[in-house]
Amino acid sequence: MALLVICVTLALNVYNMRHANKSMSEQYTASNNEYAEAKTTLTKCEHDLKSQETVLGEIKAAVEAAKKENSEVQTNLDTCKADLEKAKLEKAKADMEKSEEKRKKRSKRRRR
């Protein structure tokens, strides 16, 4: 009788161990699948990141080139504005002198 109890106990322990082993094997397989999927996603993300960093570097270089070009253009524009103001002042001065000469000529004619 004792032998029967021991055998039944052992059989139950073997059944429980196999059931637990099956459950752990399923969890292990699921974890491996998730790991493989995560690793694939990580590889894709790293590749995308490198691509984006390359594009970002190109964009930064283009922005710097555009800033440099804009700076040169701004310098040229400022020079042109200064020249224009100078020309306007000279023209105004010349117009004033011209009108002054006309006024003097008129006053000389009137005196005669």
Describe the model.
The chain is mainly α and 112 residues long. The chain has one helix at residues 2-111. The longest helix is centred in the middle third of the chain and has 110 residues, at 2-111. The protein starts with a helix and ends with a helix. The model has no long low-confidence stretch (mean pLDDT 92).
From the structure above, extract its key features.
single chain, 112 residues, mainly alpha, 98% helix, rod-shaped
Give the rounded overall mean pLDDT.
Answer: 92
The percentage helix is over 70%
Q: SS-based structural class?
A: mainly alpha
Count of runs of 4 or more consecutive helical residues: 1
How far apart the termini lie comes to 160 Å
Task: Please tell me how large the radius of gyration is.
Answer: 47 Å
Low-confidence parts: none
Order of helices and strands: H
State which percent range the strand residues make up.
Answer: under 5%
Shape field? rod-shaped
Tally the beta strands: 0
Largest sheet: none
Summarize the structure.
The protein is mostly helical. The chain has one helix at residues 2-111.
Describe the secondary-structure layout.
Blueprint (H helix, E strand, L loop, with lengths): L1 H110 L1
